[in-house]
Amino acid sequence: MTIIQIDPLETCQHPIQSQSGRRACWLEGWIEVPAHLHDAVWATYGWCDLQIEEGRLVGVTPTERPPEPEPEPQPPSEEDVTLDMLADHEERLCMLELTTTATVAT
Region annotation Disordered: residue ranges (predicted)? Predict the structure, then answer.
């Protein structure tokens, strides 16, 4: 049996649960999903509006899932920091060689 939470979470998603061997809804505030709506409910991943009549789920309307939040930027790894320092050091050496060569040539 599959059940779905009647009131959505803050994210507007309705949590869904399934357990084999159940014959009745086992959680308060949830409603049984009839067999003919089982696939439709799971296809929405809970992002849906529920149509409930006389205490029974009679339909679901898929809703748009909100966009995933941007992942938080990761701090640079120790290797990246080292490579950046080496590149900076190499650039300074090149600049020093160029200015030294230009001074000697004149």
Answer: 60-81
